[in-house]
Structure formats: C-alpha cells, structure tokens
Records
---
Amino acid sequence: MTGIVGYGTYIPKYRLKLSEIAQMWGKDIVEIEVGLRISEKAVPGFDEDSVTMGIEASKKAINMAGINPTSIQAVYFGSESHPYAVNPSSTTLGEYLGIGNNYFAADLEFACKAATAGMQVTVGLLGNKNIKYGLVVGSDTAQGKPHDALEYTAASAGCAYILGNKQSEIIANILDMSSYSSDTPDFWRREGAKYPSHFGRFTGEPAYFTHVLTEGKNLLAKNKIKPQDFSYCVFHMPNGKFPRVAAKKLGFTPEQLAPSLTVDKIGNPYSASSLMGLASVLDVALPKQKIFFVSYGSGAGSDGFILETTKEILRKQKKIVSVLKQMEDKIYISYATYLRQTHAI
Amino acid sequence: MMKISILGAYSTKFGELWKVSPRALAKEAMESALKASGLKASQIDALFVGNMLSGILGNQANLGSLLVEELGVQIPAFKIEGACASGGLALHNAINSLKAGQYKTVLVLGIEKMTDHSQDEITTALMAAGSDEERMAGATFPGVYALMAQAYMQKYKVTEEDLAAISVKNHYHGSLNSKAQFQFLVTVGDVMRSSKIADPLKLLDCSPISDGAAAIVITSENIVKKVRKPVQIIASEVGTDTLSLHDRKSFTSLSAVVDASTKAYKKAGIKPENIDIAEIHDCFSISEAIATEDLGFSKKGEGARDIAKGKRTLFKGDIICNPSGGLKSCGHPVGATGIKQIVEITEQLRGEAGKRQVSAAKIGLTHNVGGSGAVAAIHILRI
Amino acid sequence: MITSPVKLWRRQKNTSALIGKKGKILNWTIIRIPARSFVDQAPYPVVIVKMENGENMIGQLVDWQEKDLKIGKEVISVLRRLKTEEKEDIIYYNIKFKPL
C-alpha cells in the first residue's frame, strides 16, 4: 500500500488584514468577513516565490520522512504561479534539495488542484514500483486583482508531501482515490495576464459544489463507506464558507471539518490550500483515524482520497513545525506594503 | 642607493566638473605637472595612469594609450587599477620601473570622471571594489564601511559623535584649500543631522562623488635642480588582504595597511612618531579613525578620540592628518586620490601649501586604500 | 554583479548546501541608498553572520523587525530571489538570512 511518509508546510510571515483591503475600497468589512469567514491572509515576502516556499516545505518533509534527498525518485510541482511560464520549477526545487539527477519530474497546472493531481501520479508510480519515494509540492504566490473579490482571499503558502511504499514509514495510507473532471470555465488566467479572472457566482454551484460533491459522493459510494466512519474531512478552501457548506451537504459534522480550516487565518493559497488543511489535520490526528480529502481545481476537477493514519504518525508528529504555530508567527503589514511586496507597485 | 625625486606636482580642482571631459582633465594635470617640473613631454619616458572606473562607467579600456595622446608623444603608457588605490599603485609601479632602470623620468597621473553618470550607476560601479558575495548581499560601499564602523564603535565604545569630529576636522582643512570640492565648515551637529546612507554612516560621514586629476613627474636622475627643492620618495610599499570584509581576521583594522606601513617605515628607517603630516584615505569617517591606529599614530581604539581631541588638526596637533581636507572635503575622484595625496605632501614639504601650511614639515606619509581594505599603498616622502 | 544563467548553474551545488544553516549576527547595517538592482527593496539590512561551522557569511536579512537587529541575534539561512529581474531575464536565487 502507498501512503504519506513525510510532509512539510510553509506559511510566509506577513499578514494583511481583510479590514485593510475593505477600507481601501470603501467596503463594509463586517459584511465581507461574515460572507467569506476569513479575517486575514498570508502575503509573501518581496523575494519569495512558489519555488522558495516549496523548498522550505520540502526540507521539512524530508526531515520528517527521515530519508536522504537522493532517494526521492519523482518530483511533481503543482502551482498557478510557477516562476517561469517555461522552465521547470520541479527541477529547480530538486536541485536545491540535493535530489541528484535520477528522478521523474514535471510541473503541473490545474488551478488549485495541481498538486493533488501530482499526488495521484505519484501513487501510480509507487504502485507500479517505478519509484521508492516521490515528492509532491503545491505552492503558490498567486494574487487577486486589486478591487476584485478575489483580492480578499488570494494568499500564499507551500506544502510538500513525500509518498512511499514502506509500511514501517507510512503515517497515513491512501486507501483509495478517484477524480471527477470536466470543462467548466469558472476561473481562469490567460498567458501573460498578471491576475486571474472569474465568473462570480458561476464559481459556486456549477463549479466548486458540482465537482466536490459529485466526487465526494462517488468516492463514498465506491468504497461503501459513510461520513460517520471518518474522524476528519478536508476540502479545498477558496473561502471560509464553501468547505463548510460542502461538508454539511456530504453529511460531515462541523467537528470533523474544524481542524482543517486553515483558510480562516491565512486565506486561500491556491495549490497549497487543501494540502495545508490536510497537514493541519495530520498535525493532530491519532493512529487508525480515517480522513476524507477532496480538492478542487477550477476549469474544473476534484481529486478525492480516503486516507487512514497509522501508529507511525505519533513518532513523526514530534518532528513537525505545526501549521498552527506558523499561522501565529506573523507580522501585519499595511495595504501599501502589501502592494509593494506583491510587486503591484 | 637610487633616489626617487619629485620634479613637478599638480592637482586640478576636485568637484563636479560638468564642463571638463576626461581628456581635458588629464591634459590639464599632465601639462601643469610637466610645466612645474620644467620638462617637455619629449623628456618623459613613460606614462603611468591610475584609474578605476573608465571601463565600468565609460566603457573605455586602453586608457594608457588614450591619455598619452593628450601628451602629444607616443611613449609607453599603462593603466594600473586597484579600485580606490589605483593612484598609489600606479605610483608604486612607476617607481619600480625607475628602480629597474627601464625608465629614468616618468609621469604618473591619477584621474577619475564620475559625474557623467547617475547616482545609482556610481553606487553600483563602486561595488566593483568589493566581492561578489558582498554585491549579491545588496551591500554598498558605505554599507561595508558601516559594518566596520559598528564593529569599531562596539569594541572601543566610540560614539557617532566621535566619528563626526573627523568630518569636522577635514572640512576645516578643506576650507583652507582652494582646490577642494567643499570649502565650507561643518559641525558635529550638521553631521549628526545629515541623512543616513547605511546605518550608522550618514551623508556627512561619507566622501563625495567627484571629478579630478593629479599628476607628478618623478625621476631617478641624479639631477640637482635649482628651480625646485627636491622632495624624495623614500618608501613605496603595497599590502593586500581578502576582498570581502567578512573574510578578514579583524573588522577594526586593515592588515593591508599594517603590512605596507610596517615595510615602509623600515625602508625609510623611521618610526610612526617621526611623521609630521599624513594624507589619509578617509573615504568614510571611520576609515580615518582606523587608519591612524593601523599607521601607529594612535593606540588601538584611540584613533577617533585622538582626532576629536585635536591631535591630528592643523595648527594644534602633532601628526597632522589630511591637511588637504582629505577625501571628505577635498573630494574623492577615486583613481586620482592617491596622486593628489602625493601632490599635497609635496607642496607641504616645499612650504608651498599657503593657508594650510604645516610649519617645519620634513617627513610625510600617504595612505591610499582600495575597496574596504583589499589593497593598500603607503608612500613616505622627505625633503 | 553579473547574474548569468551559467553562473547561477555553476554555483547551485554550493548554494544548495548552504540552505537551512544557523548562525549569529556579528554586525549589521541598514542600506538606504542601494545599488541599482536593489533599489526596489531598500531600505534593507545587510548582516555579517558567524555560522555554526565557524565561517563568516554576508547576506541580506529578510522577514525582519527592528528588534532583530542585534549583535548576537540567531538567524538561519534561506533561499530567496536575489532581486527583481527584467521581464525576460533568468531568475537568480541567493542565500539570505532570516531571524530565528
């Protein structure tokens, strides 16, 4: 069986309060915070990008996995803000991690689900015994256009997961996975455009909810398993409202969802979003607990996974720099500084 | 024992010389030095040029050949570069050519034209004097010296006001020098109020951007000149140290200066206390504090305080430092400084320094440093 | 400073080995008048760090606050973008320091 042998997360130090954005554009902050259920978002440093954050997260994952970087034999890097349009982030990452040269590598793009797609590819390589360990990174510094709704939620962070086959090293087995894919133009970014575009309310029911809920239901049915059989559920978090609604509609309780809701404190770091929620759960999970995990990427698709923790998780949890700790390690900045740091001015 | 004598010495005005091209600057310095030496260009065997930025800023290599055109004779010509010590190094090499017997009488020119370029072009260009690590860390020249200043202030409990007194002294001296870029006085308060460049160094702790040239004619000929009193160069020594500040053993002393000056004192058969006047490379106020200690004028840690007490000031000190106004007040066209220092000492020893004349000056020293201390050239002159 | 792709590539193994190393600030300054490439980042601190292995390094300090500018402050090396590049240039990564 294939599973997670190590993971790491990185949240940049800077935070912008949503009230600063609202004040800039003369909007009612109470209305926004109630609607989005987010109070602040993570902003990258002037000199950070998806690769530098990916390196930070990956180093933690390698430390937890306790393996030599040279034993990683696949690197898949999912992002909407790869530093280059053409030039692989995956091998830049690989080189700075000291992985060597003998590995499969590719950059992936599928809006916010690029990295979970990478996970599925890696599971395939592991199952086929092509590799012993694979590294999957989801990292983004994507921004929202000033004065647009997305400005309140678009954030930055990086997550890294190392998958392997050795039961004695696995902290969470991947029991099953599937995907639901379609051509649904809810959110997109053209070549050369700095900011993404979206179609407002169309991003809700026909996009996010259709894919997350259909994938969720299919995966539950296929495995003849019910929401009550899970200790946790994790969904992609474009804002604080959508995952709460999705969880309820699928039959999960707020208690099952709560530990994953990193969006409330850091916003939506796109390809790192659902993976950050998963890490937040793994930081506190006990052995033999099932986790229901469904990501979402606009355009559109959802990747679903059923995971179960093992007793190895207790030992490896000692090595974490927890998501909670990083969420609290912050410096608040002004709207003007935020524009400067995200290279808008 | 071969004597190296200075036949003629001349410095142009230093400052923002908008109307003067590099060629015109060189021509003025060289022709005036020749005139002062009573020689014609045809009597010069070679031209040594000290310059740092002609390639980086002016895209001009082959500077020796270019400037020899301004002399009107086709003689051997060389550009020698060691960042801000280019002038001193050009002189050192010129002296070596005389000692080797290759040439008998040569012209040494230090020249720099900086004001054709923007502030940030210059800031970037000057970092060529440092290392790649320093450049990539975003350090600037003032930044590297600021790190030294902090180390010095912390180690010896010296304050920013103590360092400010150095700029005050040099502006006082410069106010008596008609060739100086800045001829106004400054107070400690002025220095403290000036804007920060790289903490703790402020605008008035830093030497300016300048244009200027200086030239001397030196000879190994055993000529008794009745026209001018013969000033002799009795020592010319060079030392080096690591390019990067952070690779050095000490951040509060320049071993390149200690090495070169130790050799120079030995060659000249003198001790530091025998020096009457010294032209010090005060690219920043901290540089002069450290230099006076490295040269043996002050005890370690006492350099700044001794200057504040007046021990290096015209008309009241014992070893007068930077009677010209130094780099701070006279200006710092980087390649020219090393030669200007020689011109100043020469004029002082000959009694030709006018309002800033140090009485009974017999032995002088010039201290010319490249980068943050990667190279140093020390010369000792005697009349 | 030259930031050619060849130079970046030649230095990668060295740079890679320097990520995530701890040290203490020996001296610091704040650059307020920067060189051209760093104009949009100023003001920023530059620090000389005594690394755990005894060697000194110089680097930009990032994610900093006033209280971090102390002699003896513990820092860790991180990989960051060197500067803001021109639209068509190679992206150059460099070691910088972050307060612990």
---
Amino acid sequence: MKRAFLLTRRRLLSSIPVLLIVVVGTFLLLEAAPGDAVDAYLLSIGGGDPALVQSLRESYGLDQSVFARLWLYTSALVRLDLGLSVVFGRPILEVILERLPNTLWLMGSATALSFGLGSALGIAAGARPGSATDRALSIGSLALYAVPSFWLGLVFSVVFAVQLRWFPTAGIETIASGKEGLSRALDIAWHLVLPVAALSFIYLALFLRMMRAGMAEAWRQDFALAARAKGLARRRIVHRHIARNALLPLVTMLGLQAASMLGGSVVIESVFAIPGFGRLAQEAVAGRDAPLLTGIIVVSAVLVIVVNLLVDIAYALLDLRVGAAEPSA
Amino acid sequence: MSHISFTRRILLQSTAMLAAAAALPVRGFAQSGGRLVVAADSEPKNLNPAIVASNGVFFVASKVVEPLAEASFEGKDGLAPRLATSWEGSADGLSVTFKLREGVTWHDGKPFTSADVAFSAMNVWKPLQNLGRLVFANLEAVDTPDEHTAVFKFSKPTPFQLIRNALPAVTAVVAKHIYENSADIAADPANAKLTGTGPFKFAEHKPGEYYRLEKNEAYWGEGQPKLDEIVYRVLPDRAAAAGALEADEIQLAAFSQVPLADLDRISKVDGIKVYSTGYEGLTYQLVVEINHRRKELADLKVRQAIAHAVDKDFVVKTIFLGYAKPATGIVPQNAPEFYDPDVPTYAFDVAKANALLDEAGYPKGAYGNRFSLKLLPAPYFAETKQFGDYLRQALAAIGIDAQIANNDSAAHIKAVYTDHDFDLAVAPPVFRGDPAISTTILVKSGTPDGVPFSNQGGYANPTLDALIDKANQTVDVAARTELFNEFQKLVAEDLPLINVAEWGFITVARTSVKNVSNNPRWAVSNWADTELES
C-alpha cells in the first residue's frame, strides 16, 4: 500500500510540468494555425460588415496579443477556471462535462472489449504457438488491424443498421425518448454496440498479438519446462503459468491504448454522431476556439495521467518487484 | 493465484455485458403520430434569427420566430404575408408602412403588437443583425400610430424594392417584453431558448444531440401547424444522414445533407423522394475570385481567357451531377426581377483562350507554361473543392499552372479575405433576393480587409462603384432595376470575378412527409402546413 502511495505522489508531482507544457503548447499551436475564431464564426453566419467584424474581434478578446491571452488563460486555469467557450458561448467545464461521459462509455467499453477479447484470443493462439488456431487468429487479427476504423464503422452502420436494422444508425440514445433509469441505460448500451465494436475490433489485434508473443516466449522459459516435468495439466500450465507471465506487458499496453483511443474516438464519434469528447475537439479546432481546445487537451491529459497511474498501481499489484526499490523519502 | 482469476472474471464479465447488450431484442423505430425528425448538420451558437440572419439559424429558428413576410411562389412580388398583412413604401423612399396581423400572441401568451416590431427594428435588426445593419442603415425611427401599424422612417431615401426583397431574411420579430431590460441583447440567454409567434414552440436543445420544437396550439394560422413536434437530430457526418433516412430514423434531410453522389441510389429506395426545388430564394453561386493585385490577372485579356477555359456545362454535369445551372453573370436566373441574360458571355473555347493569352503577352514557355497561379478552393462545400481540381486542369490546358493550396475553413477565410494570399479562389456566395444585400459587395471597392465574402481581390472600378451607389439611393423600382441590369453587363464585361454556375440545395424526404418544398425558401420557412402521413 505504501508503494502505491509513493508511486501516486511521485506521479502527481511529475504531472504538473507535463500539464503546463500541454497547455502552452496547445495554445500556441492553435494560434499558429491561420484564421481565428471570428473568421470561423463569420463563415457560419455568411459574413458581415467591417464594424461587426471589428466588434466581434473585440468581444472575443482577439484584439489583444497572444501572450496576453495565454497569460489570462493560464492564470484562470490555476484557479481551476477553464473559462468560456468561444464557439458555444458557454462555460467550458460545463460543455466538457456534458460530453465526457459519452466518450468514457465508448472508450471504456471498447477498451474492455478489445482487452478482454484480445487477450482471450491471444491465450487461445498462444496455447500452442504455430498451431492452425494460432495461424488463423494471427492472420485474422492483422487483417482487422489494417482496416481503417471509419470504414469499419460505416460498413457496420450500412449492414447492421440500414440493411438489417438490428441497431440504430447513430446517436448515443434514442432522441427525446423520455427514458429513465434502467431502460435508458439499456438504450445507451444498444446504441453503443456498433461504435464500440468498430472501435475495439481495431485495437483487439494489438492485445491478441502481444499476448500470443508473450506466451510463445514464456513457453521457452525454464519454469514452463518445470511445470510440464511436474506433470501439470496443460490447461493449468497455459492459464496459471504461461498466460499470467505474458499478461504484464498487456497491462502496460492498456495504459498506452487508452490514450490513443481518445484520438481514435474522434472518427468513430463523427461517423456515429455521438456527442463526445473527440467530436468536441474537432468542433473546437474548426471554430478556432483556443480556450475550449486547451480545456479538452488538459482534461484528456489528466485522464491519460490517471489511467497510467492506475496501470502502474495494477502493475505493482501484479508484480511485487515493481516499486520495491523506490526511495522512501 | 487469486490475482489472475480476478482479472479473468472482470474480463469475462465485461465481455458478457457487451454481448448481452448486443442481444437485446430488436425494437421497431415507432414514431408518435406527428413527430417529424430531420437531420441538422450544425448547432448555431446564437439561435436568434433577428440577430443572425443565416440559413443555419433559420433552419431551426424560422419555425419559432416569424418574419413580417415570407417568400412565395404565387404571392405578389414573390411574398406571402406573415406577421405583416400589407406593406407600402412612400414615393420619396423615406417611409414604409406595415399593417400588422391582429390576434397574434407570443408563445408566453402576451399579445404581439407594433411595439414589438419597432423594438426589433431599432434595437436588434439595425444595430446587431449581420444583414439588417446594411438594409436598415438609414432607419431613423419606427412610429407606432396604433397597435397594428408600424411606420419605418428613413433618414435618406431607401429603395422600397430592397426592403421588400429583404423582408423574409431580415425581419424576424422578437418580443419587446423579453429583451427590453437586457443589458446585452446579443448575449442574452433568451437567444438560446427562443420565444416567438411561430407555429412551433422551442422545447429543448440537447447539445450535440438534438433540438426539439413542439406545436403551438395558439398559432394564428387556421388549422396549423399540422405536426405535433419537429426534432432536429444533429448528424455531422454526411454519410450518416443518408443511412438514417433509409432506416427511417429521420424523415427529412435538407441543404444537400445527403451528398449529390448518393442521390441517384437513394432516389430508387422505396418511400424516399428527392426534391430539387424549394431553394429558389437561396441561390448559391459558384464563383472564381480573382486577385487583381497579380499583374497578369489585372489584364482583362487574361481574365477573359480564364473565363473561356472553363466548360460550364461540364462543371454542371460532372460536379453538380445536373443539379445546377451554368451562370451567365453575377445575378442568378432565380432572381427574375433582376436577371438580365443580355450580357457578354464566354463560351468554352480553349483555342480562343490561348490566343487571348498570347495577345496579352504571355507566350508559352518551357513545358507549355505561361505562368503559375496560387488557387484556393473554399473548403466549405464538396463542390467548391471539386471545382478547384477541375479549374486546375482547365487552366493547364491554356498553359497556366495552378497550384492548389488546401486550407480548412477558418484558414481559407483568413488567407483570402484578410491576407489576400491567393491569386484565384473558388467561392460560393449566396444571392439573397436583392443584389444590394450580398452581391454588390463582391465587386465594390473600399471594403476594409478582414470582411469575408466581400471584394478582397483589390478590384476597383469607379464606374461600377458609382452605379452601385446610385442604385442604393434610387427609389423608383423600374429605374433601380435598370441600374442593376447595367451593373450585370459591366461585371460580365470587366470580369472582376467569374461566375461559373448557380445551384440550389437538395432536400431528400420520406414520401410520408407532405407539402415539402412548396415555397422558394422552404427549408428556412415555418413548416406550418407540413404534414406527416402515418
């Protein structure tokens, strides 16, 4: 427990400079993109006269210098105030909290499915490296990995939603349905099936390949030989000895994947019209909404840091050697 | 040992849960009797049509907040009465009198009166609205002799023709009692939860998901509205709208949300109909913007050569798949009041274009190149991007090497309208019923940098400017129309820009939706007579 606490403290301290770099970097990057929030807004309303353009720039604070705005933004951020979105005209925290749950559901389910199914299939493949099952699974997973997620999403949508009508084509829940409680939860789950499948099938391959490679490696180790020499049942060797040793790198991968899935969900959210975090980021970039985009990136960075911390703790629990050598000061 | 089984259980549970979700019984997409679900591709930041006169806002807001008059196929001067029952301009152009509809109430039950119109005009349209600032620039006061008469007083002669043509877009009336104590009307929270007099009441907006409007039982139109509810479902992906229509999850997609390339296939699906009408009042124009600061492009012969190099029929057939018309000039054919076909035209003629360039003193050099240009196609429409690719090839045929620069929307606007960092640009301006509203600004000189959809190509023609100024003060309808005929000729002659094609959007609807596209601004009108057959 002490190890976990030390690990957490060390991680939280080291995340402060990371967040600072993220904030300044995002702000400046979007600033470097040509066009500002007023340009984007004027497009949406079909233009305006010079005085309107001028008054808009003033009301958005765009008549001030980049550094004045960056200072204003970061000093407010320190007080945990994310500010007001230019695109939505609403508090950024409110906008983000509205969208975040949808993405967390999507990503959480997709991560669970790809990790669960991927490692299960990886065990099947790694139980007998080189067998027909192994070959079939390895080739199949590679093929899946090569498919772009937006295409897979569209194909799922056309086949299962438009043709077969088993699932809805888009959305996070039935619109304006007035559903509450369990029926709403089921409704959301039903809407998530296609996007989660599209998102997780791509990432599944990675876990599968990794599990399989780890197991193939473990088979060659002495303890595997010892277990066989003891006369243990093959099933028991596969599950308790080989698979367990191959699982550790997968946990690391889980943390990394959580981050890349945040990016991958942009496309899937757009295809399935899920009002999530990725789509919000897209809207923020299109509208040149620097405070909103920075807010999104900060929240994503915090998410990634937390996930990685959880992964490290899980790692420490799975492998007692981790963190044992941490300085206790 | 317990660690691994713990992980496995979690793993099995999570997969099982997802599998269970997948196996849920298939349910039908039953619609309640009168709910029309339509696709929306954007959620405007400010939904108040009195402040933001744009199609994105009108698409939702026009059902809630009504203008004084709406465009019509049959009505006199192409108008049908809404909140005003009649309108008349004085001979001196200094006043316009509106008789207002009686017995109309706001959605909160308060009566609608001339005070609301006066407040909207003086406090919202004139100071705040993107188009109203121009149309009502000289509006001095609105007199209200009685509750149902509003007299607009102008400080300078203002053409009644312009006011009349602008009525559908710029006169959405908002309630005085809601905004009169507002410190900042443009940022008032009431803009997100509209109150109007329209056939539908604003019910809710779930950001990223939908808008819901519900029937206004107290609407002034007899037996209207027909629908109980309209739900705008936010579908940002274009392919998604077509799929949702086929699956009957939505019943209507307007503004070409179903891509042109899908129309042929989807029109063959049972129960789906494609409408190419209902946008006559919202004509979009495909235009090549020219930077006259480039010495080659400042030469009229070069501009004529470029005009001759473009095969407009090919553009209409291949890029717009027939859902467009070749343009002859800066005023579209859908504006019969102003359209003049008798202007210089530029037939597709590569040999002539090459000859003109030779004459202009730009002979073909190495690899047949005369000179290079930077081409910026506007990224807002698939068609403008595709035309950019076409134009590059068309220019190559006459020895001009066009380098395409791809930007996203905000970057394109900055590059063209602020930085002037382009030689040629492809733009889709809109004709809004009168050339003075958003068309003359495309060629008139003197607009400061940074104003999108204006002449930022450095073109200045004193004769043309004088003509535009004169038309802005000419009250007599026939004389003003004549001035705009001259204006069209001059533009076609001098080519400050090149008009290639003009198009309206496409609506795709289930056949169960009745009374679709029955006026020239249908998608942005009030849908009071729209019906849903079950």
